[in-house]
Design goal:
This protein has six helices and two strands. It has a single domain (3-85), classed as Orthogonal Bundle (Arc Repressor Mutant, subunit A). By secondary structure, it is mainly alpha-helical. Helix 2 crosses helix 3 (50-62) and helix 3 (50-62) crosses helix 4 (64-87).
Length: 113
């Protein structure tokens, strides 16, 4: 089996573990930024195997420059999306924030249901 066989290359910015919907960025974020062990990662995501986690790490180590850019682009996209969400929240979020600011009103509303 080739290392690339562990992945589905859907687009330049969308690489997923074969047979799952989990992107390599999910696994690598846990490994690189949260310093989780492969075993911990596999336990966190029961739909993938420990072998797939190790394959993802090996793919990263073999393609460090490319995959590092892939992850940096993903993180930038996440931060941009978060900023946009904060600047233009959905109506229900605005309402919940208003209720929270009114202090206790949110609890009263939730208790009515």
């Amino acid at each position: 089996m080739q290392l690339e066989d562990y992945f589905n290359f859907l687009a330049p910015n969308d690489i997923r573990l074969a047979g799952s919907r989990i992107g390599i960025e999910t696994i690598l974020y846990e490994y690189i930024y949260r310093a989780r062990t492969p075993e911990e990662i596999a336990q966190t995501y029961p739909s993938i195997t420990l072998e797939q986690v190790y394959a993802t790490i090996l793919y990263y180590l073999h393609n460090k420059v490319t995959v590092s850019k892939y992850i940096a682009d993903w993180l930038e996209y996440c931060l941009k999306s978060e900023r946009e969400q904060d600047e233009n929240p959905p109506a229900f979020v605005v309402r919940l924030r208003k209720l929270k600011a009114e202090g206790g009103a949110a609890t009263r509303v939730l208790n009515e249901y």
